[in-house]
Structure to design on (467 residues):
C-alpha cells in the first residue's frame, strides 16, 4: 500500500509493536500507582481496582485529545531528521523504543516507581544529541531545546509539587474533618465507611483517567513519530483538512505580520520574520487550487508540513520575544490563526488512538503488584491511612489533569509516590519515611534522564552504522 520493501515493512511493523509494548509496560508500571491507595485502604478488591483503572485509562486516551502527543512529537524537529533513507528513520525509532523499554522494564522488575515520562523523553533527547556525532550532523537543530526546556521543567517540578501539596492537603483534612477514623490504619479485611470508599474510588478513577489522558497521549505521539519518520508522505499531514481553509489562516497570518514594524525586531527575529513570509508563499503555491492533502504529490506533503511548522513556530517565537509591534487584539487574532493552521499537522488517526488505548488499558490489568507493593508498604513506615490515600490521589489527579490541559507531559509515578511521601511526612515528619525506598526512588528520578539519553544515543549510532 505504501510502496515499502518487504524488509522495511517488517521493520515498520516491529516498531509499531514495540511502541505498543512500551505503552503496555507503561500500563502496569505507572497505572499501578492509581490502584495502590484503594487496595491498601481496603476500599476496592485488587481485581476490581485494576479493571476499573484499566477501563478509565482506556477512556482517558480516547477522550484526552492530542496536545501532549504533539509535545512529544515536537521534541525532535522531524523536518530536520527525516531524510531520503527510510532505514535511518527505523534506526531512530528502534533506538528510542529499545532504550525506553529496557529502562522501564528494569525498574518495574526491581519494583522501583520510575517515570515512564522521563524514560521516553530521555530516549528522545539522547537520539537528538547523537546527531552531533553523525557525518554532516545537523547540530543544534537536532533537539528542540525550547520544547525540551518546558518538558524538563514540568517533569522536574511534578514530584516537588506532589510532595508539598500532599502535606498541605493533609493539614486541610485535619482542620476540617474531625473524624479520627480516616487518620487511622485500616483494619485488615474490613471495608471503610461508604463515604470514604466513594472518595477513594473517585480519586482512583480520576488518576487513572488523567494518566490515560497524559501518558496515553505520549504513546500516541510515539506512534506518530514512527509513522512520520518512516512514511512522511502518508502521515505528515491530516488529509481530511481543507487546504484552502489553512490557506486562509496563512493569508491572515501574513496580513498581521505585514502590520508589524520589522525594524523593531532583533537580528534573529528578522530571520524568523522572513522565514514566515517565505514558507507562507511556498505553502500557498503548493496548495493552490487544491482542497485535500490527497491532491498533493506524496513527495510534497512533508514539505507543506514543514511550511506549517516553520510558520507557526516562528510566529510563536516572535510573540514570545515581545518585540512584535501588534496590538493585544491583533496578537489574540494571530494566536487563533496559528492554532487553526496547526490542525493540518497536529492530528492522529483513530486507529493509532485505539491501539494505544488498548495497550495501556491491558497493561494496567497485568503486572501491577510490584509497584503497588512499593507504593502501599515501602514509602512510609506505617500503613497508609484513608486520609493519606485520598490526599495523595487528589494531588496526583489535579496535577496530571492540569498538565494535560496545558499539553505538558508529567510523571504520574512521581506525582503519586511523592504525594504518598508527603502525606506520611504530614503525620510524623521525615522520620515516617523509609529511607531505603525514598533513596531508590530519588536515584531513579536523577538517573533516568542521563541513563536513557546515553543508552538511546549509543543504540542510535550503532543502528545508523548497521543501516
Amino acid at each position: 500500500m505504501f510502496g515499502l520493501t518487504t524488509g522495511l515493512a517488517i521493520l515498520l511493523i516491529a516498531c509499531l509493536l514495540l511502541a505498543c509494548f512500551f505503552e503496555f509496560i507503561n500500563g502496569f508500571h505507572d497505572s499501578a500507582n492509581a490502584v495502590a491507595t484503594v487496595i491498601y485502604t481496603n476500599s476496592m478488591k485488587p481485581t476490581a481496582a485494576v479493571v476499573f483503572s484499566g477501563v478509565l485509562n482506556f477512556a482517558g486516551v480516547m477522550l484526552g485529545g492530542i496536545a501532549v502527543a504533539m509535545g512529544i512529537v515536537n521534541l525532535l524537529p522531524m523536518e530536520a531528521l527525516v531524510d531520503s533513507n527510510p532505514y535511518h528513520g527505523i534506526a531512530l525509532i528502534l533506538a528510542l523504543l529499545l532504550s525506553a523499554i529496557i529502562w522501564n522494564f528494569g525498574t518495574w522488575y526491581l519494583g522501583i516507581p520510575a517515570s515512564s515520562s522521563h524514560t521516553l523523553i530521555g530516549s528522545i533527547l539522547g537520539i537528538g544529541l547523537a546527531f552531533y556525532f553523525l557525518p554532516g550532523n545537523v547540530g543544534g537543530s537536532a533537539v528542540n531545546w525550547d520544547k525540551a526546556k518546558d518538558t524538563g521543567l514540568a517533569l522536574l517540578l511534578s514530584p516537588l509539587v506532589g510532595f508539598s501539596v500532599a502535606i498541605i492537603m493533609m493539614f486541610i483534612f485535619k482542620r476540617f474533618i474531625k473524624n479520627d477514623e480516616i487518620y487511622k490504619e485500616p483494619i485488615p479485611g474490613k471495608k471503610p465507611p461508604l463515604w470514604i470508599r466513594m472518595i477513594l474510588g473517585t480519586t482512583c478513577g480520576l488518576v487513572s483517567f488523567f494518566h490515560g489522558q497524559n501518558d496515553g497521549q505520549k504513546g500516541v505521539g510515539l506512534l506518530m513519530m514512527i509513522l512520520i519518520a518512516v512514511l512522511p508522505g502518508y502521515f505528515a499531514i491530516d488529509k481530511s483538512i481543507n487546504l484552502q481553509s489553512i490557506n486562509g489562516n496563512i493569508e491572515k497570518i501574513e496580513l498581521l505580520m505585514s502590520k508589524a514594524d520589522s525594524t523593531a525586531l532583533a537580528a534573529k527575529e528578522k530571520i524568523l520574520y522572513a522565514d514566515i513570509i517565505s514558507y507562507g508563499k511556498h505553502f500557498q503555491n503548493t496548495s493552490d487550487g487544491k482542497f485535500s492533502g490527497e491532491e498533493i504529490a506524496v513527495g510534497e506533503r512533508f514539505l507543506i508540513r514543514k511550511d506549517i511548522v516553520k510558520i507557526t513556530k516562528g510566529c510563536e517565537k516572535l510573540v514570545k520575544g515581545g518585540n512584535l509591534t501588534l496590538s493585544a487584539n491583533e496578537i489574540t487574532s494571530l494566536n487563533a490563526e496559528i492554532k487553526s493552521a496547526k490542525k493540518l499537522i497536529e492530528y492522529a488517526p483513530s486507529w493509532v488512538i485505539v491501539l494505544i488505548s488498548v495497550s495501556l488499558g491491558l497493561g494496567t490489568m497485568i503486572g501491577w503488584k510490584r509497584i503497588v507493593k512499593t507504593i502501599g508498604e515501602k514509602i512510609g513506615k506505617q500503613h497508609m491511612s484513608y486520609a493519606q490515600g485520598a490526599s495523595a490521589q487528589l494531588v496526583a489527579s489535579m496535577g496530571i489533569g492540569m498538565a494535560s490541559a496545558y499539553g505538558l507531559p508529567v510523571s504520574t509515578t512521581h506525582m503519586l509516590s511523592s504525594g504518598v511521601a508527603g502525606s506520611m511526612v504530614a503525620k510524623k515528619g521525615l522520620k515516617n519515611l523509609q529511607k531505603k525506598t525514598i533513596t531508590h526512588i530519588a536515584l531513579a528520578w536523577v538517573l533516568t534522564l542521563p541513563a536513557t539519553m546515553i543508552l538511546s544515543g549509543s543504540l542510535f549510532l550503532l543502528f545508523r552504522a548497521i543501516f
The two ends are 23 Å apart (CA to CA).
